[in-house]
Amino acid sequence: MGQPQTQLQQGRFDTRKTPDGGVVVELSGPWLLEHGAPTFAAFQSILKREKPSRILYEASHLEQWDSSVISFLVQASQEFATRKIAEDRSGLPDGLRRLVELALAVPERSGAARGEGPREPILARIGISARWLGESINEGLGFVGRCAIAFAKLFTGKARYRTEDLMVVIQQCGADAVGIVTLISFLVGTILAFMGAVQLSQFGASIYVADLVGIGMAREMGAMMTAIIMSGRTGAAFAAQLGSMKVTQEIDALTTMGISPFEFLVLPRMIALFLMMPLLCAFSDVVGMLGGAAVGVGMLDVPFKSYYRETIHAVSITNFMLGLIKSAAYGLLIAIAGCFYGFKCGSSSSAVGDAATGAVVAGIVMVVVACGLFAVVTNIIGI
Amino acid sequence: MAEQTRTPGKPHITVRNLTMAFGSFVLMRDLNFVVNHGDVFIIMGGSGCGKSTLLRHLIGLIEPAKGEILYDGFNFTRAEPEDRERLLRRFGILYQSGALFSSLTLIENVSLPLGEFTKLPPSQIREIAALKLALVGLKGFEEYYPNQISGGMQKRAGLARAMALDPEILFFDEPSAGLDPISSRLLDDLILELRESLGATIVVVTHELQSIFTIANNSVFLDTDTRTMIAQGNPKDLRDHCEEAKVRRFLTRGGDQSMAA
Q1: CATH assignment of B39-62+89-253, given 3.40.50.300, 3.40.50.2000, 1.10.3720.10, 3.40.50.150?
Q2: Phi and psi for B139 in degrees, rounded to 5?
Q3: Which of A47, A109, B112, B181 has a C-alpha 20 to 30 A away from that of B133?
Q4: Does A166 lie at the interface with B, CB-CB under 8 angstroms?
Q5: What is the pTM of this model?
Q6: C-alpha pair distances (Å), A49 with each of A23, A45, A74, A81
Q7: CB A256 to CB B102 under 8 A?
Q8: Which residues of A touch B103 (CB under 8 A)?
Q9: Rounded Cα–Cα distance for residues A338 and A234 (Å)
């Protein structure tokens, strides 16, 4: 190793021909993973060129070694076997030789390698996806059906759940969410106001910002923003809670105790969100209107009293109630998405993460779709 | 206990032509065995052969692909949901991880089935639950949450919950997995104690030889290669006289001479 090394010293190998057509591989330097080691490909090209009949090793200059050299030698050995080159490992240090032999001792178990099979043709893949889609729709409907049965039991007073659990969930998805709902709603209110103000002030109609923000918050944005917050906050939490209960077999334990997990776990969560969403929504409406007022009063010089009167005048009780009804429906959808993905969760910790992600995505998609349906229906019946 | 002979007791659990499958993948087929009243019955076999899956079939968490499971002659597999639920209440199940409800304290965990299925007043439920916890050596830990106690204690608490309704059959899924030798020995003693005092039938999934020879008087051996059961009977007899070398090898930790040849 006479050459100057500026970087970390790397292990290296040199080859030397013997008179009888063999090749001696000389390993030298420190072969350590952290320093990097020569790749097998480099050796392979030498093999191709030299076409040796047998291989010998020489390792007197090998300083330190770890898995890097073992991996190199095992690959080499497999290559020799396919090229029918004799190999003499007696030149290697004892421990190294034994490890290499250990690695080569057990043949690969047939069928153990699990790599990707041959790719299915496109039509087959479409078919598989279609079947998978059908199955998951079926599964979803089954879940909704079981929730419906649990609700029916609730109304006949036979449902089994603990009131303490219900109260805890109500607190988690009600009172505990007020802070974030306040922040987001206030900001949405101000954003709506700014958007309107740019256009309306051109006509000198700044006062109508109050109408825009009031109706916008009450009818759409209050319910929508709380739904999105709750989907990210509570829907994900439901999926993660139920998912980890599945992993720890708590759900199995309930089932075999003869307690329906739908009544015991899903029902309180659905009731809690169904009850809390309208409250949060009403709160969000008011905070959003305050946000609008802050812009109206602070930047557009509308007196607060006029802004207040304009808002009261613009927002009808129908708009307000419509928002609340929507938010209750969104609450049910979010709870269903959260619990569904929680129950579907596999039995590993990464599956819990997937369940939470799935719950949030499905929750938001369903909320937006429902919002569209509400818009169509209210348009048809003329509210 | 070693002299525990197989009393010609009445069959308690009868498994008939059971096939376990996930989709088109058959895990085990043609399982036929009987567990008698008062047996300590072991389901054994190598890792991943479907022992726990068989247990999940027995307690109705998975539906058999084929065949049926009978309890005291009553067909569990084809039962109506209400009958099945009634039967489930006579089971006590200790899951591999304990499966305690993490949001409830130990005493609440044990009280839960009592509260759901008996008409006892709350004070009495508490007393009984405390008694069950004392039986498994957890007196004084009533108000702890499951994550505040050790794995071995969680298992014992799980056992207390499984025993809450004085079950006729107790199922154990790998009871000694993850326990130190002493705790695992104590759990074995507890299992035998329960069998003696309650007269319960006990089904255990395990591959701990030490436990198998200490507690069992009957067993079934599942084999991955042939995808069915290849032996049945008292594990000690199987160790000494089983015709299947595979079973003898398993029960002697691979030390069977005839196999080494």
Answers
A1: 3.40.50.300
A2: -65, 135
A3: B181
A4: no
A5: 0.77
A6: 11, 6, 20, 17
A7: no
A8: 165, 168
A9: 8
Contact check, Cβ <8 Å, B88/A249? no
* Domain residue extents for chain A: 12-105, 141-381
Q: What is the pLDDT of residue A8?
A: 66
> pLDDT tier at B196 (50, 70, 90 boundaries)?
confident
B11 has pLDDT over 60 = yes
Q: Decide if A248 and B102 are in contact by the 8 Å CB cutoff.
A: yes
List the single best residue of B61, B82, B147, B165 to mutate versus A (max A Cβ within 10 A): B61
Q: A12-105, superfamily in CATH? A: STAS domain (3.30.750.24)
Separation between Cα atoms, residue B16 and residue B32, nearest integer Å: 5
Q: Rounded to 5 degrees, what are φ and ψ at A378?
A: -65, -30
Task: Give the start-to-end residue ranges of the domains of chain B.
Answer: 39-62+89-253
Report the residue of A171, A249, A259 to disrupt the B interface, i.e. the one with the largest count of B CBs within 10 Å: A249
Q: Do B116 and A168 touch (CB under 8 A)?
A: no
pLDDT in tens, A49-92: 888 888 888 888 888 888 888 888 888 888 888 888 888 888 88
Closest CA to B120 of B107, B132, B109, B129: B129
Token digits of residue A311: 């808002």
Q: Which residue has the tokens 């169904």?
A: A274
Dihedral (CA of B26, A146, A140, A272) sign: negative
Shortest CA distance to A72 belongs to which of A32, A122, A112, A124?
A: A32
Residue A60, both tokens: 């007197």
Under a CB-based contact definition with an 8 Å cutoff, are residues A353 and A250 in contact? no
| Cα separation, A255 vs A265, whole angstroms | 11
Tell me whether strands B25-36 and B11-22 are parallel, antiparallel or unpaired: antiparallel
B161 — pLDDT class (breaks 50, 70, 90) = very high
A248 touches chain B (CB under 8 A): yes
The pLDDT score that the predictor gives to residue B3 is: 36
The full DSSP string for B166-186 is --SEEEEESTTTT--HHHHHH
Q: pLDDT tens digits, residue range A226-257?
A: 999 999 999 999 999 999 999 888 999 998 88
B102 interface with A at CB cutoff 8 Å = yes
Closest CA to A83 of A54, A40, A43: A54
**Contact between chains at A160 and B85 (C-beta distance less than 8 A):** no
Prediction ipTM score: 0.82
Locate A35 and state its tokens: 């320093």
Measured in whole angstroms, how far is the alpha carbon of residue A321 from the centre of its chain?
35
